[in-house]
C-alpha cells in the first residue's frame, strides 16, 4: 500500500457531480473524496442523486486506476443529533457501494464530548461491521483538548477495534481555531501523540475566514516553512493515508501543481 495518496473532492461549484472525479482519473490522482453537499435544489448533490449503476461505475473506475475513495458525510448527517443517524447510515451505505474505505465526519462539541461519543457509538459500530473506518474532523470551533478527550473516552470504552477510528486533521480549520489562529502547527503539536491521524484535509487561509484556498496559493505560496513543518511532524507520526484538497479551483490545474509540489516535499523530507 502507498504511504500517502493525494486527491481532490467533489464540489457544488463543479458543472456536474462527476466532473472532479473524472478530472482526478484523467490526471493520475490516487485518492478522491465524495462530499454530499446539496445547498439547495440547484446546487450540489446528495447520495440520492447517484443511482446504483453510477455507484458501480465509480467503484470499477477507482479499482482500475488504483484510487482510494473516501466519503465526507453530509452536514445534515452531523452526529450532534442522534435523530440524524439514518442520514449518516445512508452516507455509509453509499460509501460501501462505491468501494470507499473511510467516512469522515465533524466533531461536534455543542453538548460536550461525552454526549458526542454516546451519539456516534452506534454509527461507529455499524461502520466497523461494514468494513469502513471513521475519521473525526476538527472544525474551526474545536481545539486540541477536545480531541485528546475524545480519544481518551473512545479508548476507555473500547468502542471500536484499533485502526477503525481516527482523526481527520483539517489544516485550514486548525489555522482558524481560536486556540491556534494562523499557527496550525501549534494545533498539531498539542494533540496527544497517540491520537491516530488517519486522514488529512489540506487547504489554506489567512486566518480570517474558511476560504479553502488551494495549497501554495495562500501563505504557503510565499513561505513553505509551515507546510515543511507539517510534513516533518506527520513523518514523526508515521502517517499513512489520503491527503484531500477540498476545492475545485479555476483553473483546476492548480490541483495538479499543488499535488506535485506537496508530493516532492514529502519525499524530500523522508
CATH class annotation? Alpha Beta
Structural domain tally: 1
Number of helices: 9
Order of helices and strands: EHEHEHEHEHEHHEHEH
CATH architecture: Alpha-Beta Barrel
Number of strands: 8
What is the C-alpha radius of gyration, as a whole number of Å?
A: 17 Å
Percent in helix? 25-40%
Shape: globular
Mean pLDDT: 95
Q: Kindly estimate the percentage of residues that lie in beta strands according to DSSP.
A: 15-25%
Instruction: Return the structural class.
Output: alpha/beta
CATH homologous superfamily designation: Divalent-metal-dependent TIM barrel enzymes
Show the helix and strand layout:
Blueprint: E1 4-9, H1 19-26, E2 31-34, H2 52-64, E3 68-72, H3 85-98, E4 102-106, H4 113-129, E5 133-137, H5 144-157, E6 165-170, H6 171-176, H7 184-189, E7 197-202, H8 225-236, E8 241-245, H9 253-268
Parallel strand pairs: 1-2, 1-8, 2-3, 3-4, 4-5, 5-6, 6-7, 7-8
Helix pairs in contact: 3-4
Describe the structure.
This protein is of the alpha/beta class and 270 residues long. The protein has helices at 19-26, 52-64, 85-98, 113-129, 144-157, 171-176, 184-189, 225-236, 253-268; strands at residues 4-9, 31-34, 68-72, 102-106, 133-137, 165-170, 197-202, 241-245. It has an 8-stranded parallel β-barrel with strand order 1-2-3-4-5-6-7-8, surrounded by 4 helices. Helix 8 (225-236) links the parallel strand 7 (197-202) and strand 8. Helix 3 (85-98) runs parallel beside helix 4 (113-129). It is globular, with a radius of gyration of 17 Å.
Amino acid at each position: 500500500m502507498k504511504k500517502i495518496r493525494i486527491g481532490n473532492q467533489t464540489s457544488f461549484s463543479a458543472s456536474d457531480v462527476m466532473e472532479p472525479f473524472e478530472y482526478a482519473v484523467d490526471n493520475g490522482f490516487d485518492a478522491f473524496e465524495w462530499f454530499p453537499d446539496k445547498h439547495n435544489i440547484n446546487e450540489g448533490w446528495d447520495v440520492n442523486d447517484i443511482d446504483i449503476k453510477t455507484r458501480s461505475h465509480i467503484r470499477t473506475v477507482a479499482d482500475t486506476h488504483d484510487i482510494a475513495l473516501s466519503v465526507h458525510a453530509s452536514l445534515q448527517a452531523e452526529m450532534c443529533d442522534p435523530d440524524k443517524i439514518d442520514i449518516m447510515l445512508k452516507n455509509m451505505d453509499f460509501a460501501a457501494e462505491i468501494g470507499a474505505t473511510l467516512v469522515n465526519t465533524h466533531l461536534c462539541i455543542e453538548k460536550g464530548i461525552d454526549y458526542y461519543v454516546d451519539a456516534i457509538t452506534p454509527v461507529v459500530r455499524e461502520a466497523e461491521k461494514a468494513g469502513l473506518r471513521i475519521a473525526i474532523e476538527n472544525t474551526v470551533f474545536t481545539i486540541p483538548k477536545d480531541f485528546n478527550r475524545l480519544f481518551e473516552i473512545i479508548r476507555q470504552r473500547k468502542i471500536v477495534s484499533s485502526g477503525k477510528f481516527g482523526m481527520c486533521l483539517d489544516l485550514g480549520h486548525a489555522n482558524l481555531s481560536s486556540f491556534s489562529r494562523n499557527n496550525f502547527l501549534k494545533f498539531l503539536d498539542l494533540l496527544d501523540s497517540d491520537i491516530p491521524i488517519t486522514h488529512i484535509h489540506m487547504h489554506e487561509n489567512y486566518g480570517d475566514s474558511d476560504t479553502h484556498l488551494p495549497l501554495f496559493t495562500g501563505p504557503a505560496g510565499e513561505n513553505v516553512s509551515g507546510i515543511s513543518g507539517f510534513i516533518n511532524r506527520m513523518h514523526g507520526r508515521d502517517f499513512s493515508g489520503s491527503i484531500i484538497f477540498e476545492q475545485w479551483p479555476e483553473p483546476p490545474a492548480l490541483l495538479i501543481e499543488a499535488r506535485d509540489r506537496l508530493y516532492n516535499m514529502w519525499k524530500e523530507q523522508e
